Amino acid sequence: MPCKLPRIGGAGTRGLQGWGRKEYAMDRLAKMSSAAYVEAMRPVFEQVMSQVAEAVNEAPDGEVINGSEEKVRDLLGEFRAKAYETAVQMRVNAAEAAFFPGGPPQRKTQA
Fold it and tell me: What is residue 20's three-state secondary structure?
């Protein structure tokens, strides 16, 4: 007969998170600069908003939604992916900079 253990604090397995788990250097990523992220994404944002305006303006009269909705959805989907990818990469870069204050070690190439 299997042994049933009571839940701790009603949290299920989440209450035990981290127990018996090894921690690695990259488990605790340094925070990225929000200002640097916004600055990095500003040109991309402005380009996408211009494309959204263009898609809406190019839609036929009387069919603005039907004529632009799909294009705008695609543009914003691509922007969402780029925004997330950039944020994750900037956080990893911040962690690497914190881990290697002088920059990552340079690997020598063999001739």
Answer: coil
Query: CA nearest 97: which of 48, 14, 7, 36?
Result: 36
pTM of model > 0.70: no
**Per-residue pLDDT tens digits for 93-106:** 988 887 776 666 67
Helices (H), the chain: 34-58, 64-99
Read off the tokens for 90.
């900037």
d(CA 13, CA 22): 17
The count of C-alpha atoms lying within 13 angstroms of the C-alpha of 98, restricted to the half-sphere facing its C-beta, is 15
Cα 31 from chain centre: 13
Regions of the chain where pLDDT drops below 70: 1-27, 101-105, 109-111
d(CA 95, CA 4) in angstroms, rounded, equals: 41
